[in-house]
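User: Hi! Is it possible to get a structure for several chains at once, not just one? Here's what I have:
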Amino acid sequence: MSEELTEAGGKTRLYVPGDLGAGMAVALDEGQAHYLLHVLRAKSGNLVSLFNGRDGEWLAEIAQVHKRGVTGVCRKQTQKQAEVPDIWLVFAPVKKTPADYLVQKAAELGASLLQPVFTRRTIVTRINQERMLANAIEAAEQSGRLSVPQVREGVSFDKLLAAWPKERRLYFCDEGGDAKPLADTLRGTTGPAAILTGPEGGFDPAERAALRALPFVTPATLGPRILRADTAALAALTIWQSVAGDWN
Amino acid sequence: MSEELTEAGGKTRLYVPGDLGAGMAVALDEGQAHYLLHVLRAKSGNLVSLFNGRDGEWLAEIAQVHKRGVTGVCRKQTQKQAEVPDIWLVFAPVKKTPADYLVQKAAELGASLLQPVFTRRTIVTRINQERMLANAIEAAEQSGRLSVPQVREGVSFDKLLAAWPKERRLYFCDEGGDAKPLADTLRGTTGPAAILTGPEGGFDPAERAALRALPFVTPATLGPRILRADTAALAALTIWQSVAGDWN
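Assistant: Yes, the chains can be modeled jointly so their relative placement is included. Here is the combined structure:
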C-alpha cells in the first residue's frame, strides 16, 4: 500500500464538494493541489483522506499530478458517514481575528450550523460568509469531522426570532438575572437545540425581555465572571456537548 | 458622585500591584495612564475600579493628571476579596497568536495558575512569560476577576511530574484509549485540581504511560473529535468550572 500523507497532529484530510465512491476520480481544487504538492510535497501514489459530508471518509490515491491540478482516486472507505449532534450556534458577530477563531473552534467543538445574528449592540455590521466557510472547512478537516458546519447568512435579531423553528430549544446565555447554570438547564434534555450568545456589550434590556417571553427559549448563565463574546460561545458549546451531546 | 468610566462591555477595571484601602493614593503605571487619558479621555474626578488580588475591588477617583502619570485615590470598596476556584491549567505551549488567545481565555474561565510544560512533541521551545502575564492581566481586568492568574515559568514534563504536589489531582486530557469523559471523572470531586493538555501532536506513548501510572493522575477524554491544543485546554477548563468549579 502506498504512503499515507501525515502531518504534525495527524493525517491529511480534505473536504471536497463532489461525490465519493469506490474507484471514483475526484478533482481537487487549486488550493488543495498547491497544499499537497508544495507544502506536503506529495507525489503520485500517495494517499490522502477525503470527505464530503455525505459519503463517509475515503482513502484516495493521488493519481494525476500536473500543472492544471491534482486528481485523487477513491480506494477504500475508512469511515461510514456519521453526523455531529444537532446543535446550532447563533452568535452576534465579532471583529475579524476573534471571528476567525470563533468559527474554527465552533467547528472543532461539533456545531452543526453557524448563524450570525445582528443585535442592537452588535458593532460589526458585515460578515464575510466566504471566509467563515473557509475557516469552518479547515477546522472540520483537522478535527476529523465528516461534515462541515453549515454557515448561514447574517440575520437581524427580530427576523431570527420570528422565523425560529419552534421545536428547536434556544439556550440564551444571559449575563444578568436569575437564570440557572447552563449545565443544569441541559441535564436530561434531548432533541434539536441551539446556543445563542450576544455581542461584547450584551443583549439590551428589550432583547432580553423578548427572549425570556418566548416559549422555546431557556435562559442560562455561564458562571460569575464576565466572558468575552467568543469565549461565551465556545464555553456554551462545550457544556452542551458534555451534557447533551456526544462527549458522553 | 463623579462619573464612572465605562466602555463597551462594562466599566473600566485596572489591576495594580500595590496596596488598596480607604483614602489611599495609588500611582498608575504609564500604560494605564495612557489608556485612561488618551483612549478613554478621562479627567480628574472620574472614577475607575482597581483591584490587586488581595484587597477586593475599590472605586478610585482620578486625583492627579499630569505628564508624569495618573494617581487614583481609593474612595469606596465595591467588592470584598474573593478567590477563583483552585484550578491550575498545565499546558504544552503553542505558537504566538494561539498562545495569546489561550492565556486570555484561561484567565476569563477562572484558572488560578498557568503552568507551561515542555513535552517531547512540543514544537515551541521558548515562552514569553512577560507577554503571558500581560495577557492574563488584561483578561482579568475585563472579566471582573479580583485576582490575576499566577503565570509560572516553563518546566520540562519530567520535572513537572517529579515535583508535583500529590494532593492536587491532575486531569490529563488523553486522546486515545479507554479514558472516561472529563465531566464523568469530575462529578462529585472536590479539592485542588489541575488540567493537563498536550501539544498539537499529542503526548507520546511513553508520556501517556508515565501519566497513567501515577496515582494523582486521572485520564479523561474530550469527545470524539480531534481538538486543537488550545481548544482542548479551554474546553477542559470550561467543563471543570461547570462540574466542580463555581459555575454551579
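Residues 13 and 147 of chain B are 12 Å apart (CA to CA). The domain at 87-243 of chain B is CATH 3.40.1280.10 (Alpha/beta knot).

User: Great, thank you!
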